[in-house]
Structures are given as structure tokens and as C-alpha cells.
Amino acid sequence: MTATGTFLPRPGAAPLLRMIRAQAALETRMLLRNGEQLLLTVVIPSLVLVLFSSVDIVDTGGDGEAVDFLTPGVLALAVLSTAFTGQAIATGFERRYGVLKRLAVSPLPRWGLMTAKTCSVLVTEILQIALLTAIALALGWSPHGNPLAVALLLILGTAAFSGLGLLMAGTLKAEATLAAANLVFLLLLVAGGVIVSLDKFPDAVSGVLELLPISALSGGLRDVLQDGGPMPWRELGILAVWSVLGLGAAARFFRWE
């Protein structure tokens, strides 16, 4: 029996970690239920891997199998599709419909909401990488290299693309974000070293393309997983710079409504 005017359970905000975990779970469920997002994040990378590994149209730059060249690039493409394109589009429309405005006045702090979105991206990427790895192994992929280097590349790549995606979603209108995010995805698919080696471009162009985050991620993964190379410090440095710039700009210029 309780005294008059008291309530059970006691009203008030849940613990911060529980709020972040609940929001991350909600974000993940929403993503997995969205057919268009699944097409972008799962179906397209899988089709690229299967199609270009099965058809002899990819110049691997050596005597290796096509799947050994393609898999690192497709893993980078999966990070791009989830952390940048998918997150930018989803967040842009949440901002347009006032979802972010309402969440911003909830007990969950704004940085907690961004943390929950990042956790959702990481969960989705883990599922993507597991699926793509299984497909690649079935196609005859023979990975090499240091798993720590691979993990660092994927984490920094996620941070870089998340920052850029949130910056786009927080500054452009939703329709502009939808068009721009898809356009960037297609351009980087062709010119980011995913399925076409940067060696095929003129030297002046390839020198610029190497500084893009998708090129650093795909190139670093290829150096480690295909060639068994050492820690790719140059590529990690490029991704770290993009991470700082992207996340810093997103924190500075993101508009919640």
C-alpha cells in the first residue's frame, strides 16, 4: 500500500545507458524493416560481390582471383552504404518530419541520440560483414593479414562516413539529402577503388581519389586482406582526418529542425 500522491513505479527518466540501448534497438529494428534501406545496405553489396566475382570483367591487377580483389572493396561499400547513405537519408527525413525535434526534448540527450544511431550503424555493419564474408568464402575468398588492422579501418571508416552523413542530413533538405546521398554512393562506387582499381585512372586523378575516405578504406582493406600487408598507417591517417573533420562539422552545423 502506498501513501496518497505517490506512484509506483516511481516516475522519472530511465538510466542513461538503458535509454541509449533502447533507442539503438529501435533504430536497428526500423532499419531492418525498411525494404529500401535493406536494398541499399545488403542486396546491392551482395550482388556486386557475386556478379563481378562470377563474370570475368574485373582487372585484378595481377594473377589473383577476382573475389580476392573485390571483397575488400565490397566491405568498404557496405560501410559507405550504411554509415553514410542510409544514415543520411533516414536522419534527413526524421528531421523533416519533426522526429528529431521531439526526441531532442526527451530525457535522452542529443549526444545520446547520436550515440544510439552510431550503435545501430555498427550492429547493421556487423550483420553486413558477416553476410558478405560468408558469400565471399563460398566464392573462394582467401583472406590474409592482421584482424586488428581490419577492425581499425572499419571503425575509422564508419566514423568518417557517419560524420559526413550526419552533416549532410543536418544541413540539407530531406529531398536534397536523398538525391545527393544516392549520387555520392554511385560516384564512389565507380571512382572509389571498389570495383575499379585506382591505377586505371590518370595519375593526376588517382592522386586526388586516393585521398577520399572510400579509397582509403577500400585500399587499406585490400592491402591487408589481399596482400597480407602491415598496418596501413597512411590509409588510417586519411580516415582519421576525415573522421575529425566530418564529426566536427556535423556537431557544429547540424540543425535539429
Automatic annotation (TrEMBL):
Residues 36-257 form the ABC transmembrane type-2 domain. Its main location: membrane. InterPro entries: ABC2_TM, ABC2_TM_bact-type, ABC_2_transport, Nod_factor_ABC_transporter. It is found in: Membrane. It is a multi-pass membrane protein. The chain crosses the membrane at residues 38-57, 69-93, 119-142, 148-169, 176-198, 236-254. Keywords: Antibiotic resistance, Membrane, Transmembrane, Transmembrane helix. PANTHER family: NODULATION PROTEIN J. This is ABC transporter permease. It comes from Streptomyces coffeae.
